[in-house]
Fold this protein.
Amino acid sequence: MSAADPMLPRVARVRRRRRDGPDVWTLDVDPPEGFTYTPGQFNMLTAFGVGEAPISMSGDCAKTGRLIHTIRAVGAVSSALTRLGPGDAVGVRGPFGVGWPMEVAAGHDVVVVAGGLGLAPVRPALYRLLTERSRYGKVALLYGTRRPEEILFRAELEEWRRRLDIQIEVTVDHAIGDWYGNVGVATTLIPRARFDPVNTIAIVCGPEIMMRFASVALRDAGVAPGSIYLSMERSMKCAIGFCGHCQFGPVFVCKDGPVFPYEKISRLLSMREI
Amino acid sequence: MEIEGLERIISEHPFFAKMEKSFLDIVVGCAKNVRFEAGQYLFHEGEGADQFYLVRHGRLALQITSPGRGALTFQTLGEGEIVGISWLIPPYRWAYDAKALELTRAIAMDAACLRGKCEADHDLGYDMMKRFMPVLIQRLQAMRMQILDVYGTHA
């Protein structure tokens, strides 16, 4: 996190905006000076005059001159953010939180299970895995989404699939027409992934229900609960653990997460009251 | 030779993994090799469910056709998986279409033959039930997630 007041947004400018799905847009922002981050961290982005929302970085951390966020327009703030165009101002606070365990994963097989827009927060981890490919064992990306039209970063997935050092499996929940790929929920891909379960780190990101079932399927496949990492989503406001909006049992998602080992939060995942 | 080949193939298929030799011998008597070209249907909705399939190679889609929308694929299956559950319960009728997406080789199991043998030998029937139940539960749970539409904006 920057040394400046963490509650004070820095003003950045949108460089480009690209549509990545029916209601999903990717903003390419000129980062504030000296801005760096690690895979899995997030920023609080301000649409001035509307409000602030937590958005994960979805770009390559190694490209320090670019700050990429992929946003689904669901509420007032996220919709306003997706309407920003080149030259528009956006407020940036961050980076915040604990990201993916890239150092822990070194020397291990890595299975990335992503669902829907959950592919965006894991993309920085995938860039790292592919850039530093020799540091990791087998790498597999298992991606599920609702329908073929909603496959995120499709061109990039196709490009990665052409590589011979990563397994890419994609599935959709439903398909009509000329889709010849897999149909079924993301968890059905886990038995098809090639990895050594006792030497695997799993990175899981998507809707909470999907993450719960994916974690169980990974455990059934032999991956230890302490080797499964989930990125949680809660109502982050201050992003520095002061306000309590994102309290999740004994932890704050903004400060202690958003990435948690499954063994730390598995009990909390099934509690309705949290 | 044919039976020996089938026995090896069936015993190596994940669905029949670690099945007792005496049961395998019975099951093999209900099995035959089949092959479907890409685009060919294994069966159609409403037809009698007189077989089920162990997929050896290839991929296929389970579909329901809706007027005006075409064929809706709700599941794809591939190597090591089984196709067909409707043969287990009366009235033994398929509730969807199964279409090969690519050249698919499979073992077809004669359902009436297997049902008869399970009735005659309840130990075999119980063994078969234990193999089918996890598949049924997994598919039920997967279907539940599909119905929940977890990737919707409400999730």
Q: What stands out?
A: Chain B touches chain A through 22 residues (CB under 8 Å). The longest helix of chain B spans residues 122-148. Chain B has a mean pLDDT of 92.
